[in-house]
Amino acid sequence: MLGQFKTLPQLLDYFRDEQVCKDYLADHRWNGNVTCPFCGHDHIYITNRGYKCASKACHKKFSVTVGTIFENTKLPLRTWYAAIYLVTSHKKGISSLQLARDLGVDKKNAWFLLHRIRETFFDETPKVLTDVVSVDETFVGGKNKNRHADKKKENSQGGHSDDKTIVMGAMQIGGIVVTQIVPDRTADTLLPILDKVIAKGSMVVTDEHSGYFRVCDNFFHIAVNHKQGMYTNNAFSTNNIEGFWSLFKRGYIGIYHWMSPIHLDRYLKEFSYRYNSRTVADMNRFSDTVTRSNGKRLTWNQLTRKVS
């Protein structure tokens, strides 16, 4: 296996120059079978500066970074790799301010870099949970009184949920978690999502929120009545998904302090990825993220465009 490292200094020692970084990316992206990122053709010429497609219909030149999160970057791949290692190994994440200090880049570059790394954590094939799955929602967004003036909501009732974002989470026994932002907590919204992410016939454990009353149509359903002080029902509980929300909110409060609703899904995917790979060695989580970088390019305009 390329690159045996357990610490950041070891990683930086291994990736001593840009060519080593490029070779590592090429190996994880193509595994010895280079293909054109424009047309998919697998007959490729090697040039002094990269590659050229041999297809007569294409003939385009490209580098190993084209079509990845690294495309058109002005930062060395060695800096990128250090950032990936820090993001994937810090349990509660790392802020753009801290990353800027650690890497010696400005805050804007660090912020952009972090969001491009988070883009790799989106799964093209959604996970389907089985067996026993606990489900719970949470409200994300700090108290209005603690927000910066340009982020305060008019007529907000302090910490009330009317100006927060609702996120639903589902966790399979053993700790695989899936999250999704939802517009409301109604059955018409929640149940179709559960049908997509949970295998039919699984056991679903929820609280007694009315939005879950029809869960039993497709799943075995157990409801835990928190209002009556009950936190388990025949040894079933929602403690594991609630524990994930606690971890996420510790990162929110202690590391990031605020997350834009526009970009919240990327933060959720970041925390989900680290949580789902928590038994994996840091080195393997790093290499998996490099592999995932293919096909996940995110431009500045895409990231900063206004959502209507």
Report the strand count: 8
Class derived from helix and strand content = alpha/beta
The CATH architecture of the largest domain: 2-Layer Sandwich
DSSP summary: helix tally? 10
| Order of helix and strand elements from N to C terminus | HHEEEHHHEEEHEEHHHH
- Main sheet attributes: strand count, strand direction, barrel closure: 5 strands, mixed
Give the % helix. Answer: 25-40%
Low-confidence stretches: 145-152, 155-159
Strand order of the largest sheet: 6-5-4-7-8
* Computed CA radius of gyration, to the nearest angstrom: 22 Å
Strand and helix map with partners:
Blueprint (H helix, E strand, L loop, with lengths): L7 H7 L3 H13 L13 E3 L4 E3 L7 E2 L14 H13 L6 H8 L3 H13 L12 E9 L24 E8 L3 E7 L4 H11 L5 E5 L12 E5 L14 H18 L7 H13 L5 H11 L7 H5 L4
Parallel strand pairs: 4-7, 7-8
Antiparallel strand pairs: 1-2, 2-3, 4-5, 5-6
Helix pairs in contact: 3-9, 4-5
Structure, explained:
With 308 residues, the chain is an alpha/beta fold. 36% of the residues lie in helices and 14% in strands. The chain folds into three domains: 51 residues, no CATH class; 79 residues, no CATH class; 130 residues, Nucleotidyltransferase, domain 5. Helix 3 packs across helix 9. InterPro entries: IS1016-like_transposase, Tnp_ISXO2-like, Transposase_Zn_ribbon. This is ISXO2-like transposase domain-containing protein.
